[in-house]
Amino acid sequence: VYRHIQKRYYRISPIDLPRAVKFKLRNTHKDAYVPKAAREGRSYSDFLAFAEDNRELPIVQLDTVIGRPGGKVNMTIHFVNSDFTTRLLLDNKTAAEAASKFQNLKASLKASGFCFGNIAPLLLTDNGSEFSMVSAYENDIDGNIESRLFFCEPYSPYEKAEIEKNHTLLRDIVKKGTSFDDFNQDLVNLI
């Protein structure tokens, strides 16, 4: 009924309804997500089955925290087994920027004699568009598969609760809405 009143199908208006004027309009902005083809074989149920078959593999959760819309972004990398978190500072929340920074991290580890796939063989993230370039997360810098990437179900942050809880700790230091534009990687490392 409220929608019909909003669309002017009836002669009354929302101001005539005491409670209707209190309601906020719903957000109609559609967020960009990982394409369905990229998520095929990488669902949360696939993750659970893979993790069950490979219990010895450490789980690493990925997510992003925005400061202000359109500004710099923190990509959080949380190692569940050791409860260790690190972050990468991204210039924006695009798939290309996230993939580039992630590949730079892998190259830096390789130059130091480490293999990212040995450190983080099992990755779990949400459906944010910044994770849509799957090969950047699964492949090493030479293009060989070294990790497996899986996606949580949409609107299910509880499936990666550890990293979500970790974000509350970040917000104790950097309040929500604070811009990351003046941050550099050294400051992010310190945090």
Tags for this model:
single chain, five-stranded mixed beta sheet, 34% helix, globular, 16% strand, 191 residues, alpha/beta
Structure overview:
By secondary structure, this protein is α/β, with parallel strands linked by helices. The protein is built from 8 helices and 5 strands; from the N terminus they run H-H-H-E-E-E-H-H-E-H-E-H-H. It has helices at about 1-5, 35-40, 45-55, 95-110, 115-120, 135-140, 160-175, 185-190; strands spanning about 60-65, 75-80, 85-90, 120-125, 150. A 5-stranded mixed β-sheet has the order 3-2-1-4-5, with helices on both faces. It starts with a helix and ends with a helix. The mean pLDDT is about 90.
Can I get a quick summary?
The protein is of the alpha/beta class and 191 residues long. Helix content is 34%, strand content 16%.
Give the CA-based shape: globular
Q: Please give the alpha-carbon distance between the first and last residues.
A: 49 Å
Major β-sheet profile = 5 strands, mixed
Order of helices and strands: HHHEEEHHEHEHH
Uncertain residue ranges:
none
Roughly what is the average pLDDT, rounded to an integer?
A: 91
Count, helices: 8
Structural topology:
Blueprint: H1 2-6, H2 36-39, H3 44-53, E1 59-66, E2 73-79, E3 84-90, H4 95-111, H5 116-119, E4 122-125, H6 134-138, E5 148-151, H7 161-173, H8 185-190
